[in-house]
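User: Assemble these into one structure.

Assistant: Restating your components, then the assembled model:
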Amino acid sequence: MRTWFAVLTLVATAWMAAPAAAQTLINGAGATFPYPIYSKWFDSYTKVDPEVRFNYQSIGSGGGIKQVTSRTVDFGATDGPMTDEQLKAAPSELLHIPTVLGAVAATYNLPGSPKVQFTPDVLADIFLGKITKWNDARLTAINPGVTLPNEPIAVVHRSDGSGTTFIWVDYLSKVSPEWQQKVGKGTSVNWPVGLGGKGNEGVAGQVKNTPGALGYVELAYAVKNKLPVGLVKNAAGKFIEPTIESTTAAAAGAAKSMPDDFRVSLTNAPGEAAYPIASFTWLLVYKEQPDQVKGRAIVNFLWWMSHEGQKYAADLLYAPLPGPVVKQIEAKLKQINYQGKPLLAAR
Amino acid sequence: MASTVVSKGGTAGRLSLPPLVETRVVRMNRGDRIFRVVLRLAAGALLLLVVALAAEMFRAASPAIQKFGLRFVLTSVWDPVAEHFGALPFVYGTLMSSFLAMLIAVPLGVGAAIYLAELAPQWVRPPVAFLVELVAAVPSVVYGLWGIFVLAPLLRRWVQPFLGSTLGFLPLFQGPMYGVGMLAAGIILAIMVVPFITAVSREVLLAVPNSQREAALALGATRWETTRIAVLNYGRSGLIGAGLLGLGRALGETMAVTMVIGNRPEIALSLFAPGYTMASVIANEFTEATSDLYLAALIEIGLLLFLVTIAVNALARLLVWSVGGAVKAGRE
């Protein structure tokens, strides 16, 4: 009699607990730039683990950092690494997990859309307002065989704060001491010259409609809309076209000196084939997870995303993570724990 | 009580409220009392909302207010990296673009309303009025995209070179022509505001009693004189109200302006030059503003926009009162 009762209770609790377990909802918020691949991942992951649902709000990196720091979401996402002060303000240790890479391309409006090559100093001086004409001697010298018109360069930049701007000015700060000192880097800066367009579409529209315009957009946006993109001279001295391969090459070049917390800028990365204006985008998760079920789901998802999930990247025009970086992420995921116990299932 | 007696007997032709209202108030039943309390609460909630909004913005902006003080409104460097914040170009941009918009939209909107209410053949009126109201419902981002892809190239290729060659001696029409800029912002705002002004003005003109027109015509006035003296004069405060509604929209409009104004925090005399508005900078930079001072500065811009809107509305309200008073005095 008693055993019957025990079995009955067991069945009843199991039956009642089952729907509760199926409802593990994980909330995240942050960067807009990787939103297309994240939503693809969260959708595909329901086939891997039907018991987990992700809800991601692409409110911008700033908002993502704010919300994860105040623990209103389970994970954050950002295009620019958090600063030391921001990390200190978090209630417990936050980890940066790279997910994919993006690149930023220079696009322009010139008759016949020739392939224009840029050196770092020329690019910086154009955006500083020191080179103002397309047929400037310094531009024609690095573009033999291309006829550049005697027209003013109309600089176009993003007006909204964005990770794309951050990558662009991070690069200019690295290659130009003058830029570093006068303008610096951030998601919005005080531009010395140029017009501001809202979003990639605003910049691209402005460039398309202004002869002699030069702007920058996400590589994915440039490729999808078949915009002309410029080649940029990398740290190894080669002119490199922005592509998915050359973006991954930038990460591979930087992998050798990758810091343990992944907070690395990939702009002007070493490597023969590396495109110099590229960056990781990161997910932000707490090393000590406050909830065992959610924590386990997040870790398992991160593992899946850094392995199987990477195959979705190229279709959506993001560059996948290079192998050595994935190895480093594996080690990092093993550190994520709930009350001292690692959450990652043995593999 | 005496006044009701006078109004009953004395001025039969004058518009006045029925005299019953005053006596009713004394003997109110319970339903009326509850109704009155509910309405009071509704009105009070609105007031409370405005006060709470202002207080909250002031609280959130206080780091920037303390750091910059009046310099915030008087300087024009906006550097988020170095955290120097001066909002003057944004205030200028908002006022200038709205002013341009009203300059274009008021004559156009009121003109269209006069045509629709006074001159248009009967079969034209309903479809055109319907279309005008439809245009008012187009989302602003659509106007913005249209501005980038159609209006700006049009301005750059045709309008700006024409203005430059004919009126180029004025500093207003000098400098490089990008298409986008203050002029584009003013025009796009005007296009967005015209339907509002037209729709409201038309209602105002339709509400003018026919006896007014008949009286003017009987005195031998021409069609134009009738419209001017009898109709426009009568509806003057209503027409100003229509303009105010449009101005309110122009001051706060964000998305469409952001897409065509060029987003450059500079005060340039030329209408061809890019500018920036308060609403635009908030929309552009709020999502990615991570430092506390930066956020506070953006919220202070919101507060400033709030104050500018109140100031402009108060000015316009004064205008209505003075004009309304003149009309009343004229009719007395």
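Chain B touches chain A through 34 residues (CB under 8 Å).
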